[in-house]
From TrEMBL:
InterPro entries: 2H_phosphoesterase_YjcG-like, Cyclic_Pdiesterase. Residues 7-17 have a biased composition (Gly residues). Residues 1-32 are annotated as: Disordered. It holds the Pfam family 2_5_RNA_ligase2. PANTHER family: PHOSPHOESTERASE SAOUHSC_00951-RELATED, PHOSPHOESTERASE YJCG-RELATED. This is 2'-5' RNA ligase. It comes from Actinomadura meyerae. The keyword Ligase applies. Keywords: Ligase. GO terms for molecular function: ligase activity. The keyword Signal does not apply.
Amino acid sequence: MVADRAGLGGAAQGPGEGPSAAETTMTGGLAVPAPGRRAIGVAIPIPDPHGSYLQSRRASFGDPLAHAIPTHITLLPPTEVEDAAMDGIRRHLLNVARTERPFPIRLRGSGTFRPVSPVVFVALAEGIGGCERVQAKVLSGPLARPLPFPYHPHVTIAHHLPDDVMDRAFKELAGYAADFEVWGFSLYEHGLDGVWRRHCDFVFGDGMVPAPGRRG
């Protein structure tokens, strides 16, 4: 299997590698990394009320990963790294954030990667260029790695579901609209319980802070 475009729910790879042993099922699950390694991702979190609303809609379609994956725009897809590399990765992300400034995003309507990938998403009408610029910086240095598809910023709302459910998700979100400003991005870690959690936030032009509910 190769990683698809679903974002944090995709299969993990190591930096600079092809598909790794962390890949598991077509539902986007990840195997437990080997001792001394962890699965991470970097993404722009979608702020509430938009994020919680889209997560609830994803759950309403029966997506089993809805409550395990916070609503986001992926910058670095699931990637397996050494524990010892984390300090360098955090420094790298901090340097990226310090070079950026907030930019607006407008979400408008739905799209799909089918038949190439079984994903339905909410599309970006504004902010694509900003996401592409930040993503290119994130995927450099210690996080440099190839991607199986060209980068296309989006917000997943259905992944690996029956075709009729994917069709319904596409139709029901066709008129969706939301506007917000991107303040920065977050580093996520994949827990042993299968849930992706924000480890820390990187604020544009500023620095690194613990994510809500974490002490560092």
